[in-house]
Automatic annotation (TrEMBL):
The gene is map_2. It is an enzyme of class 3 (hydrolase). The lineage of its organism: Bacteria, Bacillati, Actinomycetota, Actinomycetes, Micromonosporales. This is Methionine aminopeptidase. Its EC number is 3.4.11.18. InterPro entries: Creatinase/aminopeptidase-like, Pept_M24, Pept_M24_MAP, Pept_M24A_MAP1. GO terms for molecular function: aminopeptidase activity. Residues 230-271 are annotated as: Disordered. Coiled coil: none annotated.
Length: 271
């Protein structure tokens, strides 16, 4: 069942979204060459506790995955793209890191992810990351009231294909609000003008992720970490978005570097 949110409820989700955006920006500065992934995880745990927020990942036990997830971040390195289990790994120069997090504040949830290169970037990695960010922006801009869910999926896939990447249709975005995963599923590939109508009050997480040279995936023995099947690099971008009468509203926007956190705009384009 899809629950449409009121303007007040979207505002309460935006409180969680602002914290998620600010913490992701902070963590992208914490992660550096020589830093252990567990240090990034523990930094996030401290900040979430200080804020009085609640991690949506801790003790999460979906049908996929192996047992409850006992961390507050998904940290995916290089060929890992989704659900990366934080572990004892020291970041190396040139590593491509994806950070995904979701928290609840006051009973309302927000979810976001970003990818970046630690240290010296490979141009091919920067292209891959750019593709997910451009696809995210396209998906957000397609989340117009009166449109269809397939408009978002088709926009994401069009960008992926324009960059030369194929798209895995197994994992994608999702509804979000009172809990992290709600209806509907938001696929990263689909047909425009198909699917449910996008009505004001719909809140969804849009999350394109691509592998450099395949659309096939495999799981680590930890039961969580999803990697490209051929070992190629991967990237992942995500925002929580509300469909409003005036268009899409990004609830998890990250603050502009050098600007006060509360000065970040709330328009449609992705960070």
């Amino acid at each position: 069942m899809i629950e449409l949110k009121s303007a007040d409820e979207i505002g309460r989700m935006a409180v969680a979204g602002q914290f998620v955006g600010e913490l992701l920006a902070e963590l992208s500065g914490v992660a550096a060459v020589g830093v252990n992934l567990m240090d990034v995880e523990h930094h996030a745990r401290r900040r979430i506790k200080e804020r009085g927020a609640e991690s949506c990942y801790w003790d999460y036990a979906p049908s996929f995955g192996s047992g409850p997830f006992r961390n507050v971040l998904c940290l995916s390195v290089n060929d890992a793209v989704l659900h990366g289990l934080p572990h004892d790994y020291v970041l190396r120069d040139g590593d491509l890191l994806s950070i995904d997090m979701a928290v609840g504040i006051g009973g309302w949830v927000a979810d976001s992810a970003l990818s970046f290169v630690v240290g010296t970037p490979d141009p091919a990695d920067l292209k891959l990351i750019e593709a997910t960010e451009v696809a995210l922006e396209a998906g957000i801009n397609a989340a117009q009231p009166g449109g269809r869910l397939g408009d978002i999926s088709a926009a994401i896939a069009e960008v992926a294909h324009s960059y030369g990447y194929s798209v895995n249709g197994e994992f994608g975005g999702h509804g979000i609000g009172r809990t992290m995963h709600e209806a509907p599923h938001v696929a990263n590939v689909g047909r425009a003008r198909r699917g449910i109508k996008l009505e004001p009050g719909l809140t969804i997480a849009i999350e394109p992720w691509f592998c450099r040279s395949t659309d096939k995936i495999k799981y680590d023995k930890d039961g969580w970490t999803i990697r490209s099947a051929d070992g190629s690099r991967t990237a992942h971008s995500e925002h929580t978005v509300a469909v409003t009468p005036s268009g899409p509203q990004v609830l998890t926007r990250r603050p502009t570097p050098g600007a006060p956190a509360d000065s970040a705009p709330t328009g449609a384009t992705a960070a």
